[in-house]
Amino acid sequence: PEQAARMKKLQEQEKRQKVEFRKRMEQEVSQFIQATGEPRRRFQPMNKIERSILHDVAEVAGLTSFSFGDDEDSRYVMVFKKEFAPSDEELEAYRRGEEWDPARAEERRRLREMAAQQEEAELERGPTPPGPPNDYKDKYRHLIGSDAAKAAARTMEANKAYGCVPVANKRDTRSIEEAMNEIRAKKRLRQAEDE
Predict the structure, then answer these.
(1) How many CB atoms lie within 10 A of CB 80?
(2) Same domain, 61 and 143
(3) Residues 10 and 93 in one domain
(4) pLDDT for res 24
(5) Residue 153: which pLDDT band, with cuts at 50, 70 and 90?
């Protein structure tokens, strides 16, 4: 009976703490709603139960909320006013653990747009007409001369050992069957020792 009473007392205490926590979160959220220059608010890292209470408070208040952070100790909640609901890009930044920078995102978007426009312009131009056939060696003649490549080809000879390991270099001279038999024997020995 004593243990049951203690359990009941603990449960009541936990319940009280949750109610107090919820009241505190409701106050913070209403302050956040009244703060005009604050489109989003990041809360301190908290445990799973506290996060779920905060998500619920935010939902009731008509706000959008998300949890970020990898491990349980550092997970935190961010609350957004509806008119400042985060874009997918913004959410991705938070998931990567980065600060969201609207200016940088805008720059990235502009670069992507420009790249898309360039690609479109290239497609409209159509394929480039084939140029006059030329000998690619002409392009490099000033670098290699005209007979350097032929001389190099003459001096090069195949490496006979390429791809093959000479028997002398092999450490293990057993055949596959011998190696497998040895492994099986060791296994049987181990099983016999275990029994």
Answers:
(1) 19
(2) no
(3) yes
(4) 93
(5) low
Residue 48, classed as helix, strand or coil, is helix
Residue 79 lies in a domain: yes
Number of domains in the chain: 2
Which pLDDT value is given to residue 168? 65
- pTM here? 0.49
Residue 19 lies in a domain: yes
Asked if the structure places residue 116 within a domain, the reply is no
The Cα 4–Cα 10 span in angstroms is 10
- The pLDDT tens digits for 100-113 are 776 777 787 788 88
Structure tokens at 167: 């028997």
- Looking at 83, 102, 121, which one is the last position of a domain? 102
Q: Could you list the residue range(s) of the whole structural domain that residue 11 is in?
A: 1-102
Whether the predicted pLDDT of 56 surpasses 90: yes
In a domain, 12, yes or no: yes
- What separation in angstroms does the CA of 102 have from each of 85, 93, 112, 113? 13, 11, 15, 16
Residues in CB range of 78: below 8 A, 6 or more apart: 40, 41, 42, 43, 65, 66, 67, 68, 94
DSSP 80: E
Is 45 within 8 Å of 74 (Cβ atoms)? yes
24 lies in the same domain as 87? yes
Going through the chain in order, the beta strands assigned E by DSSP cover 40-42, 64-68, 76-80
Flag whether pLDDT at 139 surpasses 90. no
Please report how the helices 102-125 and 88-95 are oriented relative to each other, as an axis angle in degrees rounded to 10.
120
